[in-house]
Write a structure and sequence with these properties.
The chain has 17 helices and five strands. With 473 residues, it is an alpha+beta fold. The chain has a domain at 345-464.
């Protein structure tokens, strides 16, 4: 097949508006949590991180605009301007520039933040914003569209490679999906029902995931038929993904980027019909391809291959370049669900005041066995999600965001209250974390979860927790 792409200006316009819409939701989600997570009294203050790192880390190593100011007003202002830029792009006003600005602002948060800003879909937003900046809407750019297809390919194929390299071989033996729905970070109500399906079906799901991610994914580079097969497979997968688990805005981004698999003629026809119904004139005539698109597209594909070699093979070509590219998040690897955990250990916050101990529930994570599961995507509840990771290895000690949450419960309950469902006591005396193993109930049993206490945790007097924190960058 020649390199000339079946996608062009009409697909580009659809793609950019889709990226703008999902990015807008991502900004709204981040803005709603910015202060309780990253503000001066939040659980992981960005200003404190940057102040503690000024002598050791240069702006070249971490090029974030938050070096200028990471005050609460700056954190909210950045989210506002990022969202506003996406809104303009959504309505077709300077979409490339606006999405490039959105990506630069978002990169500032990611580089200055900690694990709470290290989700793969945070990197995906930045990478998509870079490609959006390079995507013309008024002319064909086959090499840029090849870069978009490479990004889509990476989302799936590298996940297949990670699954194939699982140290316990759970995807190969068909056991992975037997545990997935029960142990996914934030399952939806439909996950309970999916978990009850027969073991033979779960085995088929495990092998099908390897096949469509590892084999069908190559169809993104093929002719119309293979692209349509890939589009159907990807879309079906993401619909099931969204129905059974909450992965923030990742699934929505994956669906939007799949637009690059559509044919220019089909999208142009739909666009012309829509413009006619709205009383608008015809779309502008396409111009000649930009001369810079070939080297830029080839560079992106080359860097993607370089990073994949570093992550998934023993080869290490150009290690310094690969490290630098990975640090800047402009080109990334993606490797979702490499190994499915078979146990679900959930931490439970408890606070002691004059009336004794009380359990502090978060709104979306597994806790009270009788509380219904939630559908919260495309919003990304970052603390709820990250506590799942903490439960996987809580014996190794508490990460900074957990210590920060305990500190907030003790000393700044009003600042961290938006992160919790339970009203927080204003005069806490001590805090503790208890750890529970959760299993889905069986059909006919009450509630959603059965849980067993596996670790009582340690009582921590609030006087032993500092009022502020300066974690390293």
């Amino acid at each position: 097949m020649p390199l000339t792409s079946a996608s062009g200006p009409a697909v580009a316009r659809l793609l950019l508006r889709g990226v703008a819409g999902v990015s807008l939701v991502a900004w709204l989600s981040l803005g709603a949590q910015a202060l309780p997570l990253f503000g001066a009294l939040g659980i992981s203050p960005i200003a404190a991180r940057l102040d503690g790192a000024r002598a050791q880390v240069s702006a070249w190593e971490a090029p974030t605009w938050l070096w200028l100011s990471a005050s609460d007003d700056a954190l909210l202002g950045g989210a506002f301007f990022g969202g506003a830029a996406c809104l303009l792009a959504l309505f077709g006003l300077w979409p490339r520039v606006c999405l490039g600005l959105s990506g630069a602002l978002y990169l500032g948060y990611v580089l200055a933040g900690d694990a709470l800003l290290a989700f793969q879909w945070d990197n995906l937003l930045i990478e998509a914003s870079v490609l959006a900046l390079l995507t013309p809407q008024d002319r064909p750019a086959p090499w840029v569209h090849l870069a978009w297809r490479t990004l889509l390919f990476k989302l799936y194929f590298l996940s297949a490679v990670a699954k194939a390299q699982s140290p316990i071989g759970d995807w190969w033996d068909g056991s992975a999906m037997a545990h997935y729905y029960e142990t996914a970070p934030l399952p939806t109500p439909l996950a309970w029902w999916a978990h009850q399906l027969p073991g033979a079906w779960h085995s088929f799901e495990s092998w099908w995931a390897l096949f469509f991610e590892g084999v069908i994914a190559w169809g993104v580079f093929g002719p119309r038929l293979t692209r349509r097969v890939a589009l159907v497979a990807f879309t079906s997968f993401q619909i099931v993904n969204m129905a059974t688990a909450n992965y923030g805005f990742f699934c929505w981004f994956a669906l939007v980027i799949s637009a690059v698999l559509l044919d220019e003629e089909d999208v142009a026809r739909w666009g012309a019909s829509a413009r006619s119904r709205l009383g608008l004139g015809p779309a502008p005539a396409a111009k000649a391809s930009p001369p810079w698109q070939l080297p830029v597209g080839a560079l992106y594909v080359g860097l993607s291959i370089l990073l994949a070699l570093h992550r998934f093979t023993p080869l290490e070509p150009a290690p310094r370049l690969a490290e630098r590219v990975a640090r800047l998040r402009l080109v990334n690897n993606y490797h979702l669900f490499a190994q499915i955990t078979t146990r679900r250990i959930e931490p439970s916050f408890e606070v002691k005041d004059r009336e004794g101990w009380r359990v502090i529930e978060l709104p979306y994570k597994a806790g009270d066995p009788d509380r219904p599961l939630s559908v919260v995507h495309p919003h990304q509840p970052r603390l709820d999600f990250m506590l799942w990771f903490y439960g996987l290895g809580y014996q190794r000690g508490a990460p900074g965001y957990v210590v920060g949450a305990l500190r907030g419960l003790c000393h700044h309950p009003e600042a961290v209250q938006p992160l919790f469902e339970t009203p927080l006591p204003t005069e806490a005396e001590a805090v503790r974390l208890r750890f529970w193993e959760h299993r889905f109930t069986e059909p006919g049993e009450p509630g959603w979860w059965r849980r067993v206490l596996v670790d009582e945790g340690v009582e921590i007097p609030c006087v032993d927790l500092p009022h502020t924190s300066s974690p390293p960058l």
